[in-house]
Specification:
Distance between the termini: 76 Å
Shape: elongated
Largest sheet: none
Structural class: mainly alpha
Radius of gyration: 25 Å
């Protein structure tokens, strides 16, 4: 009886081990595919995050924008910059965060534009 129990445990561990190994391989392949899909734009965005010290999500939260639209970014930037002006009782620290957030979003817009232009160049004209 104990012998069968040990065999069942060993077979079960082998099955679980194989399933785990397969899941890890699939996850690694999916991660690699996602990284390749992000491509150059993803690497440039990560570099911009390192340079500015602010993530894209943080910049969007500061300027209260969900989509990267130039008009919305500029409108919110101007409002928050004026509200946080030291002469009207605002905070220089918050004002500087607003400036850095706008710089980060402007950098992201440039990256997206370059990526779009590169994709357009790689398209072959149909004849």
């Amino acid at each position: 009886m104990a012998r069968y129990l040990v065999q069942i445990i060993i077979v079960g561990a082998q099955v679980v081990g194989r399933a785990f190994a397969r899941a890890v391989r699939q996850e690694m392949a999916a991660s690699k595919a996602a990284a390749e899909a992000r491509g150059q734009a993803g690497r440039q965005s990560a570099a911009a995050t390192n340079i500015t010290g602010m993530s894209l999500q943080e910049a969007q939260q500061i300027l209260n924008v969900t989509k990267l639209h130039t008009k919305d970014i500029q409108k919110n930037y101007e409002h928050l910059f004026k509200v946080n002006d030291k002469s009207v009782g605002g905070s220089f620290y918050l004002q500087s965060k607003v400036v850095r957030a706008k710089e980060r979003l402007d950098e992201e817009l440039k990256i997206e534009e370059m990526d779009r232009a590169r994709k357009e160049q790689t398209k072959q004209p149909e004849t």
